[in-house]
Amino acid sequence: MEFFKKISSIDFMGVRWYAIGVSGLLFTLSLVMLVARGLNLGVDFTGGTVIEVGYERSIDLTAVRKTLDHGGYGEAMVQNFGTTRDVLIRIAPRPGLTNAMLSDRILGILRDDAGDNRVNMRRIEFVGPQVGEELKEAGGMALIFSTLAILVYVALRFEYRMALGAIVAMFHDPIIILGLFAGTYIEFDLTVLAALLAIIGYSLNDTVVVFDRIRENFRKLRKNTPEEIINRSVNETLSRTLMTSFATLLVVVAMYLWGGSVLHGFSLALLVGIFVGTYSSIFIAAPVALSLGLDRQALMPPKKDEEIDARP
């Protein structure tokens, strides 16, 4: 199945500087958000109790915060989750109180103050602080080691200018996703970290397909300029790229819409990551390699030494 019956002829490299400029801006904003605001780490990493409650009618978060403050839980983090009727509350562990006792007290305080606006318990999660710290360290190590392994693979697989293009694209995608989570302050938990690792692999796979075609065409097309060859290679793989992204999006959109609150962050990260990963394979990896001076000579296989006929 193909989106295009004929190979398209879109001038991707003609707009590469605009694309790099947009990506540079998004990348910078993402770093600023990560440094200035940071991630809203979920209970998986921080430890504590997460309570999701639902009201019959819309509720003002300020009123919920005041209610918890009057009840002695002013440090609780309160945010909407989906609609204005759904509220997510995160509370750090308290000495002398079990998680069950803590959640019962919070729910009792909310119900006493809600009046005729009934409060329903939706979800409760408990994670100890020591477990959360261990998960944070393990998640960070998984991200570091997987990135290092990919760097080694790319360095061995491609010529250094193509390898650098793939590496730039690889760092481009997760940073923008992290910036999105920092900017929106959506909870970052283990499922989102898993999605981040999946997006790194997804984007790299797309980049490898494009680069393999670029390498083939550089050796096959002798009269075209590097820009023309890269444009043709991207257009030749465009149908495959779009088909793969479309098929993946069908599953991810279904998870986002009907997967429930547990899969909300995971599916959102994948949803954004598929778009960003597809974009970076076309508009970041190949343009960076071209800007670094990628040419035919760099990709031609080394010539074998000619055998000298020693016969008289």
How would you describe the overall organization of this protein?
With 312 residues, the protein is of the alpha+beta class. It has helices spanning 16-36, 43-46, 61-70, 99-114, 129-157, 160-184, 190-220, 226-258, 264-291, 296-299, and strands at residues 40-41, 48-55, 77-81, 83-91, 119-127, 187-188. It has two domains: 13-40 and 132-299, Multidrug efflux transporter AcrB transmembrane domain (Multidrug efflux transporter AcrB transmembrane fold, Up-down Bundle); 48-127, Alpha-Beta Plaits. The strands form two sheets. Strands 3-4-2-5 form a four-stranded antiparallel β-sheet. Strands 1-6 form a two-stranded parallel ribbon. The longest helix has 33 residues, at 226-258. The N and C termini lie far apart (61 Å).
- By DSSP (H or I, 4+ residues per run), the number of helices equals 10
Percent in strands: 5-15%
CATH class of the largest domain: Mainly Alpha
In spatial order, strands of the major sheet run 3-4-2-5
N-to-C CA distance: 61 Å
Number of domains: 2
The CATH superfamily of the largest domain is Multidrug efflux transporter AcrB transmembrane domain
